[in-house]
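User: Structure tokens for this complex, please. No commentary.
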Amino acid sequence: VTGVSRRALLGGGFAAAGAGVGALAGVGGSLAAQAAAAPPPDESIDLSQSHPFYAAAARQPQPGIQTPPQRYCVFMTFDMASTLTTDLQVLLARWSAAIAQLQAGKTVGTVEPSHGAGVGQDTGEALDLGPASLTVTVGLGPGIFDERFGLAKHRPAHLAAIPALPSDNLEASLTGGDLSLQACADDPQVAYHAIRDLARMARGTATVKWTVLGFGRASAGKNQSTPRNLMGFKDGTRNITEASDFEKFVWLKKDAGWMAGGTYQVVRKIQINIEIWDADVVSDQQRVFGRDKVEGAPLSGGTEFTTPDFHAAAHGSPKIDPTSHIALAAHENNGGVKILRRPYNYTDGLNQFGQLDAGLFFAAYMNDPEHFTRIQTRLGASDRLNEYISHIGSGVFAVPPAPRSGSYVAESLFA
Amino acid sequence: MPFANPQSSRAKRLLALSGVAAAAALVLAGCSTSSPGGATASKSGVRTVDVTLTGGGSDSCTVSTTSVPAGPVTFTVKNESSTGISEVELLQDQTILGEKENLAPGLAAASFTVTLGGGKYQVYCPGAAKELVDFTVTGKAAAASNSSAATLLRQGATQYATYVDDQVSTMVETTKALQSAVDKGDLAGAKTAYAKARPYYERIESDVDGFIKPGFSATDNAGNLDYLIDMRASNLDPKVGWHGYHAVERDLFQGGAITASTKKLAAELTSNVEELQKRVKTLSYKPEDLANGAASLLEEVQTEKVTGEEEAYSHIDLVDLAANVEGAEEAFAYMRPGLVKLDPSITKQIAKQFALTDALLDTYRSDSALGGYISYDAATKTADANTISQQVQALQDPLSQLAAKVATA
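Assistant:
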């Protein structure tokens, strides 16, 4: 309730200010109208909500991509320890069935085995917590299609390691992986339990490589309000939300063969130099992003969802700095290319220098990882934000379509 | 949650087990044959039994018929939706007659064929709410088998006691050698003797903790032999002070000098190890003690050795770690003749993981290094701790299932 009244208050304030300035009256008026017509969406959390894992039809994507971003997310990558193709097959089959149960709020097996000396099949910490909108998304790294498993002929057309990009500061221990799991839920313990029990199933077949625990969503789905990253700015205002954009930029089409209905996942662990950012004056922070901080409006004017005008100038210089984050990332300036961003804020506590160790776990989905590479090449080279961030982890994975009931992720690889 | 009441399930299982013990032991004619595909063999004379696994939080195992006439029988196992059950076995007298593992929903049905004589059997689905399904074969019984898994396990446990005694007696010798080098003030000799003495305790650690000297209460560390022999700096009881191997280690490797106090510590260590030897001679072991002991040695690896906490001054953690693994492997070897009858596939799996672990540890061997393994310093730890830990975990997971198996044999 406080959120609603505060927004209403802000809207009214803008409207009044707009009315006072003739040229902006229209803008202010439309904001007031928008605020009145579209009340903030209901984002209260219902922990009994669940998403099905199995597809109802062929070529449907896995959950956890178009799914409205849940509040928390745990991401983990694995390297195959076994080189047996059947071990990989059994792991994907066991994971798939387990994920279907976890997403329904069930355990992956008994917590108390009937024999007292037995080991539980499920670790039990998510009992009674509800499904909490859990989704687990399975990805296959480039390594799955190398010489080890005889699957090279099935390699998805665009799956290859992300090339070295400007400003990369990647740590080997936070990079790559043969498999990825993204578990997002509205209860962090539900997400963690899923990763933990799936990692347990993998033991002996795959070893854990790196993980990130995202504590707050930093992207919005359709009908969600735009959340903020740890820099205090709204993140993902211009993100993909419309079905037509998903078709155009995210999902793979029939020509992708067994990957049709799937997509590619690119992940980056982006550390933020929190203390330095916090000491930066707000006007500079706004220049870095190209937006104002509270409303999130582009510096070319308007409100959060006003299309930025990269040509707008005042006193001979552009209102939105050409090296601002939004200018470099905008599809208008990247050959029309868009990617679906689904990031989460993370923290790893304190670093060795006693500074806050935190940042953005950037997860994105697209029908060709080259689209990420294209955008990040520009960002890495000249983004004003680079002074405050560092890309320390990276990975690329093919995300096959969701399996039908009775099947499992990537079954067609083993046919 | 829809879980079966564990107490009632256990009671059922015990009943079922006693029923089998009474049944005549049978031998397999022609052993089991497995076919990987989903097709159900229906040659004339071969009976087929479908085993279906379903999940949904409480896993169950359904058998299409619970009685067939004697002769060849094909069991076709299909995992419809169970995440908790990944293997199915046909048991008689706690011996596995046929099995299928790596069952997962979505995979093709798998089958195995066995020739069965008349008698009582069970379909065993570990992880199911009801793990054992009684299965009857009517008709003529086959000839009796020789030694049962249980007998072999008991024999192994008895022989294992000799192994423990041998380790303790060498521990006494090598600890005396350490004391003698310390008494001579020979620092280099004492360091070498220290590294030589360490593995003997580490190989059998899980069998020998918990001894209390006469006249002490169980909560008083001053009488706790494990405390007096093997306590590390991280777990000191300030009231009792520091004694044992690691107190000597600190003097030799951190202090770099042998003092009167070092000599006192070494002498006291010898007498405590001798006291331990007397106690160990009275011990006897059940098969599950070997299984639990092996698992807890690997726990030691994960909690004390991989962290570098055990040998904080000498950095010979890899010597101790290899000794823990070796001790677990010995216990496994004594169980193996019985285990292989009980569950050939997990026996094979554990043997494979031991081989992988041994091969990994071999890469750290160095003839010139103290104790025969490279120093577990900060650099080694950063580079290799993760690899070692994950390999040991891959071994520990199947190994931790053994206690339940051997306890009911």
